[in-house]
Amino acid sequence: MPQKRIEVDIEGKIEEFITRVDRLPVGIAVADSRRRLIAANRAGCSFFGCSREEISGASLDRFILPDDRDKDAALYQELIDNRRTSYSLDSRFLRKDGSTAWGRLNVSIFDHPAGHAPYTVMSCEDISGHKNTEALLRENRTHLKAILDNANLPIFLKDIRGGYIFVNRQYEKLAQVTNEAIQGKNDFDIFPEPVAALFRSQDQEVVKKKKLVEFTETIPLADGIHTFITAKFPVHDENSELYAIGGACTDITELKRSEAALRESEEKFRATFYTSPDSISITAKDGTFVEINPGFTKLTGYTREEVIGRSSGEIGIWATPKDRERLMTGIREQGMVENLETTFRIKDGSTKTGLISSTNITLAGEPHVLSIARDVTDRKQLEIERQTVQKLKSVGILAGGIAHDFNNLLTAIFGNISLAKMSANNQASLLEFLTHAEKASMRAQDLTRQLLTFSRGGAPVRKAASIKELIADCTAFTLSGSNVKSAQFLAQDLWPVLIDEGQISQVIQNIVKNADHAMPGGGTITISAENTTIETRGPLPLPPGRYVRIAITDQGEGIEDRYLARIFDPYFSTKQKGSGLGLAIAFSIVQKHEGLLQATSAPGAGTTFTIHLPAADILPPEKIRSRNEQMVNSGRILIMDDEESVLMVMKAMLTRMGFDVETATNGREAIALFTTARKTKKPFAAVILDLTIPGGLGGLETMRRLLEIDPATRAIVSSGYADDPIMANYADHGFMGVVTKPFSVETIMGEINRVTK
């Protein structure tokens, strides 16, 4: 048959074939040996988005994406080489409009009748929907695996025969096996037989009950014994057929341990609560008692039935209601209060002293207060008795020391007076013995002044003053004639201090004198002073604020530890030259100045006394020096004193000095004499008033009356109580001068001269 006729015949058969399959839903196409499309049915044209004319003669490679062309070409070559009769390929195809679609290409080959290159018959099924579903499933599986792998719980899936299908990362850690290695294996392949048997029985129970079941199990793992709550559930397919068992494990090992520890703690608390001899109570937020222990009943006398549901205020336990307010304020602001001393009113009406500590706690999620109170009534009484005994002991030591010192001084005074009487005809000896008696009297005056400071205190009259000049003057005065020198390092910018200059002078002198006595062979006393600020309460028992710190250090032998704690006790001394009163007085003065005096020492290393004095907020006033003026020794003087001997001596002194003197034993006599003198035109140049007149009108009230009579009255206040506040602030009460008993004729003359000028 001629070639052309054969070609026409084949093309006709292809056309006939395409016509027959034109209505099939699957795309059918025929291509020649060069992979050019000859014809395609309606579904094929639709799949490629082309008309029959556009498809005819088009290369098949035009419609296959480049990534799949090589694979398709390799499979086609296997057809040509007779290594296969057909092949199937899922590939992405490019449509005319540029979009892509998934198609399953099935290719077969048949030979040309004339022996020419073979033709290719292809079917192409649109599988885009199937591929999209597969992609979605893969994406969902990826998301699900990510969720399961990042879950904190071990999760697994097993088939109904017990073979593992899937485990997440937490389960991998738990069983120490990978997901890939565990697939297809069962519990007996992984866990010890008892554990595997337990898991298998649980699975069977889930299959039987066909619902979620929770199991609590304790099993040994590589890192120890663990307790789990495992929830296992049945998994069904789309036909509701059970095909798998899923599970999630919650490790409650730490919870179990915490529960055990909590139970142990509760048991200990319960044992402590009910066996403690101290009173323990728990109150609700509204203050009502929730629970009490037997110690509470022992302390207060109230039974549990009488207390529960009522508040301490209702029961009336607090002898001082303000203590309850302090306690509640401390709990509210700080969360707890420690060792608040209070007085409890007992059921029988008596009282007891207690130390109470309270703190906030939480019970059943609600705020409560736990309070512990200790009965310290007996201890308090013993402490009071001990302090009383100690005070009596101190008073005994003080009295003995005073008696000793005064006996020595009186011996000197009496002896010198007796010698003076015996030497009445010898003026030189008489003057010598009287001078010695006067010096002994002045020492007695110094002793009484220190005793008054120590015993009465006399609230220091504090004013802003410069401590630098005071230290220098007191040190120079105390060390005058001594073989001990001083080295002073005083900061230039020292703050002024709030002090009574007279009292603090006494402190400096006493400490320097003590240092002098500590170095009988001579040496150097180092004195330093600097500003310091205490920000918060710390080791020093001082409130926060600004202070001037003074340190006085000697080079003596030091003080042993057993003596160091007693050096501020009255009449305690380790020095032969010491009286034992100076440091006690210094301590008392500094304490009354709201300061601090401390001592540190070590044998062979000397002793350091440190003084902290509060700084003043104002500058000290400038000192005004009086002019040198001639003594006044004439005029009328009125003296009021309740002691006849004092009146006699003062009158004799002033009369000898040229004054005309009148005396009164009380305020009423003084006012009468003062009034008469004004009426007779013989007024008094000065009035000397004793501050204290037992049973009569004293100096202060008398002064008020005299000022009413004559506002220009020139008066001097006199008293044996040197530290009386009126003596320190005499000008505030109208007085123009002050003298402290005992005094010399020079002292009283100097003051009269000052106030009458």
Walk me through the structure.
With 757 residues, the chain is α+β, with helices and mostly antiparallel strands. It is built from 24 helices and 27 strands. α21 (667-679) runs parallel beside α22 (699-709). The longest helix has 46 residues, at 377-422.
Q: Which labels suit this protein?
A:
757 residues, alpha+beta, five-stranded antiparallel β-sheet, 27 strands
Give a nutshell description of this structure.
The protein is an alpha+beta fold and 757 residues long.
Task: Provide the low-confidence segments as ranges.
Answer: 1-8, 623-630
Number of helices: 24
- The order of strands across the largest sheet is 2-1-5-4-3
Beta-strand percentage?
A: 25-35%
Helix fraction?
40-55%
**What average pLDDT do the residues reach?**
80
**Tertiary shape:** elongated
Secondary-structure map with pairings?
Blueprint (H helix, E strand, L loop, with lengths): L2 H18 L6 E5 L5 E4 L1 H7 L3 H4 L10 H15 L5 E9 L5 E11 L8 E8 L1 H22 L5 E5 L4 E4 L1 H7 L3 H4 L10 H17 L3 E9 L2 E13 L5 E10 L1 H23 L3 E5 L5 E4 L1 H7 L3 H4 L4 H4 L5 H14 L1 E10 L5 E13 L2 E10 L1 H46 L4 H29 L7 E3 L1 H12 L5 E7 L6 E3 L1 H17 L5 E12 L10 E9 L7 H4 L17 H11 L3 E6 L5 E8 L21 E5 L3 H13 L3 E5 L2 H13 L6 E5 L8 H11 L5 E5 L5 H4 L8 E4 L4 H12 L1
Parallel strand pairs: 17-19, 23-24, 23-25, 25-26, 26-27
Antiparallel strand pairs: 1-2, 1-5, 3-4, 4-5, 6-7, 6-10, 8-9, 9-10, 11-12, 11-15, 13-14, 14-15, 16-18, 19-20, 20-22, 21-22
